[in-house]
Amino acid sequence: MSLSRSHTLRLAVVLEDCSDKLDILGHTLQIKSVRGSAVPKEITRLTKLKSDCQLISQHISELCSELEETQTFTSLQQVLEQEKQKKEAGSMRRGERKMLKQRKEDLTSKQEEFQQKTEKLKEVHQLVKDLKLQLIEKSSKIANQKTTLVKTFEMQLQQTQKETSQTEKLLEDKLKLLQKQHQEEIRVHVESEIFLQNQNKEFQQKLQQWQEYKSQMQKEKEQQLYKVQCKRTIHLDRLMEKKRLFREMEQVVVEDRDKLEKLQLQQAETRAAIKLQAWWRGCKVRRGLSFRKPEQNKKGKKKEEKRRKKK
């Protein structure tokens, strides 16, 4: 979109005024950051404001040069588009960082769950050991009881050999009952041991599955981290390239500004010379001086004298 010459001149004047004000503001911010005794946060804020003022001033100078040359303002639209792209890239980076943080938190929570399960498994192992010890103690007690009972029964048999057959049957029944109890306790012990072994196998399988899951998740996270680092290097390369282009454009703008200042100075000198010549001519006209050379004035005087003599 092109503008008229008057509009471009007005806009250029306004933009130059804004650029001068921004330069003054940047100098004042620099003085405050150097001389002031502010906290580090305030100093960083002042430096950021100063850099923003310089950036805006550069964009304004580019826009002025474009208005003077082509009477358009496409550079402003390009700058706005670049800023929009930067904001979108920043929002994307913040989203990626947030996702990485969330994934790390999930991984830590899963690790904590894994540690809790391992602790529970250790407690189960300890419980199995305690039960084995208790079973050994019970079996030893039962064996001791059996031996003592057998000894007592033998002594009673030796002492009561003359008793009736009914007492012998009672003793045999008691012995059978004790044997049955002992067999029942042995069966319970074997079943409990089998149950604990099965539980141990299940916990071992779960532990192996969690370890495999942990290794898989760690590999995925490493791959994601590598991809993020690659994207970061690509963005840094693009940023360096844009900085280089910006420096070249800034150098071109400075050269154009110097040329423009020289041209303006020459135009001012020519205008001053024209005004001085006009003033001098006006002075000569007002005083009645002629614009001829001295020789021509002498010839004109001689002709008038000859005419006078003829008369």
Please supply descriptive tags for the structure shown above.
311 residues, mainly alpha, Helix Hairpins, 2 domains, 5 helices, 93% helix, rod-shaped
What topology emerges from the helices and strands here?
Layout: H1 5-35, H2 40-70, H3 74-159, H4 165-287, H5 294-310
What percent of residues adopt helix (DSSP H or I)?
A: over 70%
CATH architecture assignment name of the largest domain? Orthogonal Bundle
Encode the helix/strand succession as letters. Answer: HHHHH
Mean pLDDT: 77
The number of helical segments is 5
- Radius of gyration, in Å, reads 54 Å
Number of folding domains? 2
Instruction: Tell me the name of the CATH class of the largest domain.
Output: Mainly Alpha
Ranges where pLDDT stays below 50 over 5 or more residues in a row are: none
CATH fold topology of the largest domain: Helix Hairpins
Please report which band the strand proportion falls in: under 5%, 5-15%, 15-25%, 25-35%, 35-45% or over 45%. under 5%
Assign the structural class, choosing from mainly alpha, mainly beta, alpha/beta, alpha+beta, or little secondary structure.
mainly alpha
What distance lies between the first and last C-alpha atoms, to the nearest angstrom? 79 Å
The major β-sheet equals:
none
Give the total of beta strands.
0
Oligomer state equals: single chain
Dominant shape: rod-shaped
Q: How would you portray this structure in words?
A:
The protein is rod-shaped. It has 5 helices and no strands. It folds into 2 domains: 1-72; 73-279, Helix Hairpins. The chain has helices at 5-35, 40-70, 74-159, 165-287, 294-310. The chain has 311 residues and is mainly alpha-helical. Helix 2 (40-70) runs antiparallel to helix 3 (74-159). The two termini are 79 Å apart.
